[in-house]
């Protein structure tokens, strides 16, 4: 599916993409005993053996294809984060679940903040979910706030992350044993917000912390964002931002209709699943955008492939998010969208790729394109258009040189 989007949305030729599945075994005994099982019939690799195997793959694939771009997909959090930290400065790679989801959510947040009349640095967030997607999204937004001039320490104080056991906060004993750091591990520890009591329920976090934006990445049963939460946000914010991102629809933290109704039509909504347009009480129509990674990763891949960017940096991800927002038309904004219409996805991917390559030059990250080859934005846009794949037949002969003879 992702490779089809690289082709259709990013304009990368189909013969230049390849799916790879790393088989590290299975702990399902029934599968291992099944004669029709085509996977490795051995217990799943763990620990050092697992990471050594991924090392071997990365070394081999970049030795065979030095200009390749590797996208990691569906790696569990405990593996995804250390693998990304290890490889991102060594190889041309990125993790779509962490960086792609984070980048596209950052784009949605920037678009929503513009519509709410707030700079990104004035925003605050409650994130439901502390998996790789949730932490990746929060990290990406922090990077965006740093790009806008905040210190990383100050930016991280604008976040409260909640697990199924409540907020990750100060273990003061208000909501249980103070010696039990709820949900805290090496990945989550930096997100501990000491202004909030550890284990505080989400509804209480909304009343206490009063975030401008709700981020839903918990993948729990639907309804995690309650009417009380959204109504309180609408009471203290002119345009509360509600982003129920969990897929599928049965796990959405709330529906767009609920968010609009509970905020008297003032909420700015982006979702993880596709939803129909909503007619408000006054007869006006809102079209909630689907916050889908396809708005950014095809353009990232196109830029890295065409320009041979040595490393996909945080600055490039921020540039991709801003380019996605800048691609919106006034008509799309007036409809309540936070992303461009999907029919313009190739145009968006082209804009994202241009922005990423420009950022690569600004950061001094090595590329195959020499600076003199792309002296202006116009030339860069032309180069990328010529490199993009279009599913059309090319003429094999010059039509003007062919004489047509009619046969009876």
Question: Can you put this structure into words, describing what you see?
Answer:
Residues 1-88 form the Malic enzyme N-terminal domain. There is one protein chain. By secondary structure, the chain is of the alpha/beta class. It has three domains: 25-97, no CATH class; 98-291, NAD(P)-binding Rossmann-like Domain (Rossmann fold); 294-387, Malic enzyme, N-terminal domain (Rossmann fold). Helix content is 41%, strand content 10%. It contains 15 helices and 13 strands. The protein has helices at 2-8, 29-33, 47-64, 77-87, 96-116, 132-147, 152-156, 202-209, 227-236, 256-262, 297-307, 314-326, 330-334, 345-363, 377-387; strands spanning 70-72, 93-95, 125-128, 159-163, 166-167, 169-170, 193-197, 213-216, 241-244, 268-271, 278-279, 285-286, 289-290. The strands form four sheets. The chain has a seven-stranded mixed sheet, with helices on both faces. A two-stranded parallel sheet has the order 1-2. Helix 4 (77-87) links the parallel strand 1 (70-72) and strand 2 (93-95). Helix 8 runs parallel beside helix 9. The chain is globular and about 75 Å long. The chain starts with a helix and ends in a 21-residue tail after the last helix.
């Amino acid at each position: 599916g992702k490779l089809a989007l690289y082709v259709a949305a990013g304009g990368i030729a189909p013969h230049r993409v390849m799916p790879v599945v790393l088989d590290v075994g299975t702990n399902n005994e029934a599968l291992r005993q099944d004669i029709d099982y085509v996977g490795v019939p051995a217990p799943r690799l763990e620990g050092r053996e697992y990471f050594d195997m991924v090392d071997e793959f990365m070394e081999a694939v970049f030795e065979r294809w030095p200009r390749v771009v590797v996208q990691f997909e569906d790696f569990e959090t405990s593996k995804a984060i250390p693998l990304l930290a290890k490889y991102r400065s060594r190889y041309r790679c990125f993790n779509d679940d962490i960086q792609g989801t984070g980048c596209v959510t950052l784009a949605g947040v920037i678009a929503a903040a513009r519509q709410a009349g707030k700079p990104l640095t004035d925003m605050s967030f409650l994130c439901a979910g502390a998996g790789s997607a949730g932490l990746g999204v929060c990290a990406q937004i922090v990077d965006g706030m740093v790009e806008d001039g905040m210190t990383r320490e100050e930016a991280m104080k604008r976040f409260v992350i909640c697990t199924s056991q409540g907020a990750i906060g100060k273990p003061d004993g208000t909501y249980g044993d103070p010696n039990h750091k709820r949900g805290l591990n090496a990945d989550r520890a930096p997100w501990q917000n000491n202004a909030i009591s550890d284990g505080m329920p989400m509804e209480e976090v909304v009343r206490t912390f009063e975030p401008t934006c709700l981020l839903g990445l918990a993948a729990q049963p639907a309804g995690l964002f309650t009417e009380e939460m959204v109504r309180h946000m609408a009471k203290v914010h002119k345009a509360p931002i509600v982003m129920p991102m969990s897929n599928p629809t049965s796990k959405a933290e709330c529906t767009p209709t609920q968010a609009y109704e509970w905020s008297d039509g003032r909420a700015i909504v982006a979702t993880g699943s596709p939803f129909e347009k909503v007619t408000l009480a006054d007869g006006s129509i809102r079209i909630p955008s689907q916050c889908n990674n396809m708005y950014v990763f095809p353009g990232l891949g196109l830029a890295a492939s065409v320009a041979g960017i040595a490393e996909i940096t945080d600055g490039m991800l921020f540039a991709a998010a801003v380019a996605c927002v800048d691609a919106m038309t006034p008509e799309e904004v007036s409809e309540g969208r936070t992303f461009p219409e999907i029919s313009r996805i190739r145009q968006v991917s082209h804009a994202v790729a241009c922005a990423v390559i420009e950022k690569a030059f600004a950061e001094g990250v090595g590329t195959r394109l020499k600076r003199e080859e792309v002296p202006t934005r116009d030339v860069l846009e032309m180069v990328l258009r010529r490199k993009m794949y279009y599913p059309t037949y090319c003429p094999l002969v010059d039509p003007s040189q062919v004489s047509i003879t009619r046969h009876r």
